[in-house]
Amino acid sequence: MELKTIKYEVADGLATITLSRPKRRNSWTGRMHTEYRWVLAQADKDPAVRVIIVTGDPEGGAFCAGADLNALEGHSERGKYDAGIADDIAKPGYGVAPEFDATFAYHFGLTKPVIAAINGAAAGVGLVLAAYADLRFAVPGAKFTAAHGRFNFPAEYGLSWLLPRLVGVTHAADILLSSRVFTSDEAKEMGFLNKLVAPAELIPYVTAYARAMADGVSPGSLRETKRQIYKDLHSDAASAVNHSEAMLTEMSMHPDYKEGVKAWMEKRKANWQG
Q: What span, in angstroms and rounded, lies between the C-alpha atoms of 94 and 92?
């Protein structure tokens, strides 16, 4: 696929996806959504990729400023919402669990962790994209907003389900009912962010974090642990324990278990098979 709104790079086990519409503050369009899902699918099936980083083009001055205002105006003129995507759009993460087979919820079905490096404003769908990442790091002072309320929209793309699980019902109700603007400093206090990082240090910090994860955790462990986290949200404690015990038996027979033990004993980097 020809990429016009996304930049995609793979290096040293990391895939970096950059939302790149700098003249429009990296705002979201159907084209960007189509390209985003395509590169996610590429990263998820690429054995050379261990961790995925999502960020905004720094020239855009935002992570993602939400849906493109021209697109919103077009929806208004047509009298209905149009996501602007084709029926044959890529479906990364689909087929793992029925609960994940939906727009943006597909992130939960990916086999690799997704880290959001939030280098500026995240509004509307930009907030959605950040929320569906597994880990979130942001620069101080970045602005967030759900934004939907001012356009007579509902809470978008499952934020009404996800945000209460990330920050609690009280904070989620504040964010969603008010559609107010809040900063990354407040988001960190709510528990939405893992860490605030100075602008010049954000990408180096996230890259180092992701590389440590890629080097120190086996691909199988990353895959299964991620699935446990999100599948177990739809389960109960006993089922989670029983499933983990079954997986422990199965995964201990994989060559990566022996390699992990050997590498630990020899104090060296493991050579995972995946």
A: 6
Same domain, 162 and 227: no
Q: How does pLDDT run across 114-155, given as a tens digit for each residue?
A: 999 999 999 999 999 999 999 999 999 999 999 998 889 999
Same domain membership, residue 191 and residue 64 = yes
The span from the CA of 192 to the CA of 185, in Å, is 10
Boundary-marking domain end, from 213, 233, 254? 213
Q: Are 122 and 141 in contact (CB under 8 A)?
A: no
**CB distance 36 to 95 below 8 Å:** no
1 assigned to some structural domain: no
Q: Is 254 left (phi over 0), alpha (psi -120 to 50) or beta?
A: beta
Token pair belonging to 221: 């462990």
The verdict on residue 43 lying in a domain is: yes
Q: How far apart are CA 252 and CA 163, in angstroms?
A: 35
In a shared domain, residues 81 and 113: yes
Q: Encode pLDDT of 9-39 as tens digits.
A: 999 999 999 999 999 999 999 999 999 999 9
Asked whether residue 273 is assigned to any structural domain, the reply reads no
